[in-house]
């Protein structure tokens, strides 16, 4: 590992997370999407675990093997000279030691930040991990990062609104978010919240930078900045849009044999230039 280079990138990511501007993260899933996002002027690359899983033939939800995810994180990290933050799902193991190991392997792959979520995919839906264990997982991740003297940016995701069996998911999310920040997380990710008033309440109650997942019904980025949201990401939305466009093109080819769908495609030389 090139520790000095990783430290510089981690410090850059940290400064953007805590800076005055909202950090906008259009999530990527391969080298091509990474180059496109970088070419558009974004300062940080964030991976989509869902997008990577789908591209390799897996369903989302930690069905992909950790080594396969790390391989793609490495390819993405080596594609651009920008800080990369990787979605490492639930850390590929329930115990704190597994999360710590995953953080170090993610750092070796070239990323200087990662999401770690506190729920697992079960047959009946997402299920939150026990509170104490969830806090210990973030503590272990921070100790692992400190052991190599890299200010690795931990974005602790809580699925209080998604996997909670609690009658009060708001308080569940706030309690977990603040506990993760105290345990060593640099920011917290509270997905699946689109209501502006609810997001405003989260910003007031959570004692650190907040990441919101964008979707078609979300407030605009300027509105989220005004509220005080620190970072926003789009998850698997770009990859879903890409697959939707392929599906539409297939329908046109199959049903009518027309090619109007190709009019807005990147040209071969444009893509080669991006990748060179």
TrEMBL record:
GO MF term list: catalytic activity
InterPro entries annotated for this entry? ICL/PEPM (IPR039556), Pyrv/PenolPyrv_kinase-like_dom (IPR015813), Pyrv_kinase-like_dom_sf (IPR040442)
Q: Pfam families per the record?
A: PEP_mutase
Designated name of the protein: Isocitrate lyase/phosphoenolpyruvate mutase family protein
**Which species is the source of this protein?**
marine metagenome
